[in-house]
Design goal:
By secondary structure, the protein is an alpha/beta fold. The chain folds into 5 domains: 89 residues, no CATH class; 101 residues, no CATH class; 110 residues, no CATH class; 130 residues, no CATH class; 101 residues. It contains 13 helices and 39 strands. The protein has an 18-stranded mixed sheet that branches. It has a 4-stranded antiparallel sheet with strand order 11-15-19-18, with no helix packed on it. A 3-stranded antiparallel sheet has the order 1-2-4. The chain starts with a helix and ends in a 6-residue tail after the last strand.
Length: 650
């Protein structure tokens, strides 16, 4: 029977809902009608699959949207009336349904796996029966008998969608991967369906709507729903009456996620906050058309009470006079920008994001993801940015400066520890410098470690030499790991071959092969047994039960070993690729050596990471102590140096 005929039969045997048009040019869905239909697209799909029909030429992406994306449907129905979801609706014959194995749904329904292997259909044909040979020796054909044989075939993605739906897997099929494995005819276990996480919900938050506040970030929301305004304690901008200061952004629920069974995964419930609790003297709550605001009811300075978590407007406010125990104590700032005109006292700590200090700093300034600029001197203190940059425009002495994930720029440094991803320094004396990339004008008596080092002038300082260490990859651990994986992989491949040979030997036994062929025909219903035959068949089943169990056990072992081999192969490729990338761009250039300068290469498995967490004295001791990891590459009092790391041959 042709596919067009089966399509007609399927369509005629099942009434189409009002939102489905089964036309010669395809199966179309009327989005406006679907949006108001009871039961929606899922009820239609469920009924069609139960009636032994399926889609052909299915647009699986659109199929999922029609089932699970209500937001998309609401947005699209007014733009496009009809969308083609498939080429046709055809019959799903029982003999084709029998080709599909059970699917394994993992715990919590977050993933489904399927074992792909070659499949075949049973085909009937007429075999001639010959009589006694005639005088000429030719036996005449006296009749025909019907016989069957197995004919190789392939699975079909559209059929698999229907089969998995009826087995409870309704969402997240990996269409490209499935089509690829079906086309290749390979035997393998494949994760065929993956869940989709819900999108993140957004907590209610407060945004600043007044430019005079000089803030960009919202106050942090506490677990009890209140806003933590402690970071604004020392921000005192001047505002006019009626100025909108803060706006509440309502909480927003995330989009649903789905398990492979089609069951919805609810997003986390976002937190809410009460804006009224923030409003104090000189402010009020205003309900505007576009939201809820805190507004100023008088002219004055903004004052934020961290203890009460409130914002108020006052006529007069005391100006800041630096960071000290008397004026402010330690500060924790969440504002985007902070500018301090006074000094930062020794022992005081300021934490924030983007921070600028116009006077000297004797304490500690720490930025979370922002930039630090110190225009005055940094003396005996610490400047540290996690994820941002640090700039020192004046002199630094006996200080620690860290910008491990960013850029560090310094003018003059003495007896400092400088650590950054990229370090630019004009003049460094008796410093420890750790950087992926270092660009320096003058270096005297320093201990340096990095990967790309460019120095204009290098020399000693009061008898202390400059030590330049190029950190190069240590491949010994990785080489051992590669060798171990290759050995394990070879052993596993030998084991797979041995088990496969055992399976083939078992299947080749004549009596057992006949039993398996007969078993397949009986299971499929091609052969109907009488009561007497059924009794004899059970005896035969019992006789071969042990061999069947042995064959099943061997197949399970082979499946497990094949999966293990694949994992090892992928791991090996990943490690070898990583090893190829190691060591690139490691070099040292010193344009002019004016004093005692030593260069060495140091093998380290983790690059500069272990050095970045050391104190200055520990860095100096580690780099100056000669051991088996280090190799001297240059030494001199004058001239120039040009050195580049060459990866050793295997």
């Amino acid at each position: 029977m042709s596919e067009s005929n089966t399509a007609n039969e399927s369509s005629q045997s099942m009434a189409m809902p009002v939102f489905v048009y089964n036309r010669a040019d395809g199966v179309f869905v009327d989005l406006p009608k679907l949006s108001v239909a009871e039961g929606g697209f899922e009820r239609f799909v469920e009924r069609m699959f139960e009636n032994g029909a399926r889609f052909s030429g299915l647009d699986y992406g659109l199929f999922l949207k029609l089932l699970y994306d209500a937001e998309w449907l609401a947005e699209t129905k007014d733009k496009t009336a009809n969308l083609k979801v498939a080429a046709s609706i055809v019959r799903f014959p029982p003999e084709r349904q029998a080709l599909y194995r059970k699917v394994k749904v993992l715990p919590k329904d977050m993933r489904a796996e399927y074992m792909f292997e070659p499949v075949s259909l049973e085909e009937s044909y007429q075999s001639p029966l010959f009589g006694e040979p005639a005088e000429d020796g030719v036996a005449p054909i006296v009749g025909y008998e019907t016989k069957t044989r197995e004919v190789a075939t392939k699975l079909d993605f559209d059929e698999l969608v229907t089969d998995l739906w009826q087995k409870g897997v309704k969402f997240g099929l990996r269409e490209d991967a499935i089509r690829k494995i079906i086309g290749s005819g390979e035997t393998m276990r494949l994760p065929i369906a993956l869940h989709m996480d819900p999108t993140d919900s957004h907590d209610a938050e407060i945004v600043e709507v007044c430019n005079d506040l000089h803030r960009d970030n919202s106050p942090r929301i506490l677990a009890n729903g209140k806003a933590d305004l402690s970071v604004y304690k020392n921000r005192f901008p001047y505002v006019k009456k009626g100025t909108r200061l803060l706006k509440k952004v309502p909480r927003k629920l995330g989009k649903l996620g789905y398990k492979v069974t089609g069951e919805a995964i609810e997003p986390d419930m976002p937190k809410d906050l009460d804006l009224q609790k923030l409003s104090s003297v000189g402010t009020a709550i205003e309900q505007g058309k576009d939201g809820e605001y805190v507004v100023a009811t008088m002219d004055g300075f903004v004052s934020i009470d961290a203890k009460l978590n409130s914002i108020s407007i006052t006529e007069k406010i005391e100006t800041k006079e630096g960071i000290s125990a008397k004026t402010t104590g330690d500060l924790a700032l969440a504002a985007d920008e902070f500018v301090e005109h006074g000094e930062v006292q020794e022992g005081r700590t300021v934490k924030g994001k983007h921070m600028t200090f116009l006077s000297d700093v004797f304490g500690n300034v720490i930025s979370d993801g922002g930039n630090i600029v110190i225009s005055g001197n940094l003396s005996g203190g610490r400047a540290e940015s996690h994820g941002g940059n640090v700039t020192l425009n004046a002199r630094a002495s006996r200080a620690v400066v860290l910008a491990r994930e960013g850029e560090l720029k310094a003018a003059q440094c003495e007896s400092c520890t400088l650590i950054g991803k990229v370090v630019h320094v004009e003049h460094a004396v008796n410093c420890e410098i750790i950087a992926d990339e270092l660009y320096a004008d003058i270096i005297e008596g320093c201990v340096i470690a990095g990967k790309t080092i460019r120095i204009l002038s290098s020399g000693e300082r009061r008898g202390t030499e400059t030590l330049v260490t190029m950190v190069v990859p240590d491949n010994s651990i990785m080489n051992k790991g590669i060798a171990d994986i290759k050995k394990a992989l070879a052993d596993a491949q030998v084991a797979v071959a041995a088990k496969t040979s055992d399976i083939n030997a078992l299947k080749s036994e004549a009596e057992f092969a006949k039993f398996m062929a007969l078993h397949g025909r009986i299971e499929s219903g091609a052969i109907k047994l009488t009561a007497e035959q059924a009794s004899n068949w059970q005896k035969l089943v019992g006789k071969n039960a042990k061999t069947v169990q042995q064959l099943a056990a061997l197949k399970r072992e082979v499946d497990a070993m094949v999966a293990s081999v694949k994992d090892m192969e992928e791991t090996l490729v990943s490690i070898e690729q990583e090893q190829q990338e190691m060591g690139k761009n490691i070099s040292c250039t010193i344009e002019k050596v004016v004093g005692h300068t030593v260069g060495q290469a140091m093998r380290m498995a983790n690059g500069l990471d272990s050095l970045c967490v050391m104190s200055g004295s520990a860095i100096r001791n580690t780099l100056q102590t000669m051991d088996g990891r280090k190799e001297r590459v240059f030494y001199g009092d004058d001239g120039a140096i040009e050195w580049k790391f060459e990866k050793p041959s295997a």
